[in-house]
Amino acid sequence: MQKNLVALPGHVTITTTEPDMLTFDNSPLVKRAKMPCGHVISQESMTDYCLSILGQRKHVFPCPNLGCKTEWPFFVVAHVANLTPQQRQEFETLIQDNETSKDPRNQRCPTCRTWCRRHDLNENCVECSVCTAKQGGRRFLYCCDCLREWKASIAGGRTCGNGGCGGTDSRRLDILASCPEKEILRRLAPVVRGCPKCGTLLEYKDACTQMCCTGCQHYFCFYCLKGANTKAELKCKPYDATCTIAPRQTTLSSTSP
């Protein structure tokens, strides 16, 4: 059931004369929202756009108009879209998780998925208090790089005692080594890249090659891996970049998200 689309003072105005930027619908009988950047979208198009973002497990909402670099705040997007309470909760959970994962000291427990925190970035050993309690007080320790249970006799340092770890997440490196290449906007490149800043793996799906890391919000070019603090600071063009395509990555940042 569609909700009544109304203005949001200071953020969204209502128009029936300007067309939807995605469907080009210009029916005078349909209310459309003029977003903070000035581009127009209908409630139906915004809902579809939100579900597309949610399906990719993303949480940021860049204006889909080609060339626009504006990111819409979630409260504005949610005001325009016709989201169910469950869909809205999923977005809010993603946003909360992202804020938590920005701090490289935080990592999810591989067993119960609870957020845990290490106090020293040079230490890979993390204790999950939830799993410790479930085990009757026996400490559950895991490695924040390879995400396997800690096996070393000393509860600390960078080496967890698991084969193939050595202080780095070997599983992520295996994915980078074995992922296929495909034509990405007419250029051949690996379909998976590791964020140059935190090591989070991102798979190219569609749209432009300017990526925003879901782990630390670092922006980088999927071709050459050069990064920036904001999308506007990226030097490589989003759809027709001519930069050198970086080879497959064989190392990742030790500062895991």
Structural class: alpha+beta
Q: Distance between termini?
A: 39 Å
Number of strands: 16
Evaluate the radius of gyration.
22 Å
Structure description:
The chain has 257 residues and is an alpha+beta fold. 20% of the residues lie in helices and 18% in strands. It is built from five helices and 16 strands. The chain has helices at 43-55, 74-80, 85-101, 129-134, 170-178, and strands at residues 13-15, 32-34, 40-42, 61-62, 71-72, 106-108, 115-117, 125-127, 141-143, 181-184, 187-190, 192-194, 201-203, 210-212, 219-221, 227-228. The protein has a three-stranded antiparallel sheet. Strand 12 (192-194) and strand 13 form a beta hairpin. It is globular and about 70 Å long. The mean pLDDT is 85.
Q: Could you name the key traits of this structure?
A:
three-stranded antiparallel sheet, alpha+beta, single chain, 257 residues, 5 helices
Secondary-structure blueprint:
Elements lengths: L12 E3 L16 E3 L5 E3 H13 L5 E2 L8 E2 L1 H7 L4 H17 L4 E3 L6 E3 L7 E3 L1 H6 L6 E3 L26 H9 L2 E4 L2 E4 L1 E3 L6 E3 L6 E3 L6 E3 L5 E2 L29
Antiparallel strand pairs: 1-2, 2-3, 4-5, 6-7, 8-9, 10-11, 12-13, 14-15, 15-16
Brief overview, please?
By secondary structure, the protein is α+β, with helices and mostly antiparallel strands. The chain has helices at 43-55, 74-80, 85-101, 129-134, 170-178; strands at 13-15, 32-34, 40-42, 61-62, 71-72, 106-108, 115-117, 125-127, 141-143, 181-184, 187-190, 192-194, 201-203, 210-212, 219-221, 227-228.
